[in-house]
Amino acid sequence: MRPIQARISTGAMAHNLRVARTHAGAARVFAVVKANAYGHGLSRARRALAAADGFAVLTLEEAANLRLMGVDQPILLLEGLFGADEIATCAELDLWPVLHHPLHLDWLRQHPPARPLQVFVKFDSGMHRLGFPLADHASVVAAVRSVPGVAGVTLMTHFAQADEPAGVDWQLQPFLGELAAHGLPWTSANSAALLRYPATQGAWVRPGLMLYGGSPFADATAAELGLRPAMTLQSELISVQMLQAGEGVGYGQLFRAERPMRVGVVACGYADGYPRHAPTGTPVRVDGVASRTLGRVSMDMLCVDLSDCPAAGIGTPVVLWGEGVPVDAVAASAGTTSYELMCALAARVPVVETG
Fold first, then answer.
1. Is 223 within a domain?
2. How high is the pLDDT of residue 81?
3. N or C: less crowded end of the chain, CB within 10 Å?
4. Domain for residue 330, yes or no?
5. Among 329, 260, 324, 255, which Cα is nearest to 293's?
6. Is there a single domain that holds both residue 103 and residue 38?
7. Which of 308, 224, 299 shows the shortest CA–CA distance to 269?
């Protein structure tokens, strides 16, 4: 078989959840498992994160699958209802939808659920993506409370710059100040806010990236935050080439050797989920030795520098990201985020589960 594989550690995910709890105070923890648990597998993440107080997903299908897997904790629908027909399923499966638009209230009035629902009412505190205007909080909360199909209300917002120097105060303080009079539970913290801003804890926190071993910060590695990588993408050398000074490698000959050097060809490319736009110098490990990519990533292959790996040959292991090569470092080199890399893992890459 082609030697590429993704090793996914359930033990690392469980460890990272424990780290999240150390920052959560008295807040309960929603484990965010949308997008197939950030590429790690919904069923696998459900088992690894079974100690979470609840799960947060994007779609009704994800929520229904979790219930079929035996999950009995609360399940939050982060983007809420996509149609009035989903209300009945929310009641049947005891799902907690996010309400962020007046149309959601109309649907609940017109199609009352068989049993009242716990709902999360999202307010836009500055991200300007989803949410009721914060200035309308009094009328919105009153309207939600008047809907017979609502059993309980939790207030919610989302931060735009929790992972940046601007921080969260410019959103958190107006959110808390405006909504304090309602006396309702609230949630605001994603991974970045949970790790750096204790004031965002609220009743629930919503870590995602950190559960999979990624750092939300440019100035702090996952290891420095006490996190372990859950996904390790690895492959092997399938060929070794010898370049002379001035010779290039790969499409476009973007890399040219300055001196004679050995180049390894790795069975991994952008069709496997590795970023095509990763430039020369993106970190890898060859047989445990730190190295770098060379030239343009192809569909099925990429090239690496073997200058410091004189014994490397066909079959030598290569780590593309994960253990020994932080996915955040690969993402930074490629000008993207670790979220994208993990979510983009291709279906053709075999997955091996580890403890």
1. no
2. 96
3. N
4. yes
5. 255
6. yes
7. 299
Low-confidence ranges of the chain (pLDDT < 70): none
> What residues act catalytically?
34, 251
Residues 135 and 20 in one domain: yes
* CATH number of the domain bearing residue 160: 3.20.20.10
Q: Is residue 219 part of a domain?
A: no
Task: Return the number of other C-beta atoms located less than 10 Å from residue 25's C-beta.
Answer: 11
5 assigned to some structural domain: no
285 is in an annotated binding site: no
From CA 203, how far away is CA 225, in angstroms rounded?
A: 23
CB 300 within 8 A of CB 3: no
The annotation status of 299 as a binding-site residue, yes or no, is: yes
What pLDDT does 42 receive? Answer: 98
- The amino acid present at 286, given as its one-letter code, is V
**Residue that terminates a domain, selected from 212, 241, 264:** 212
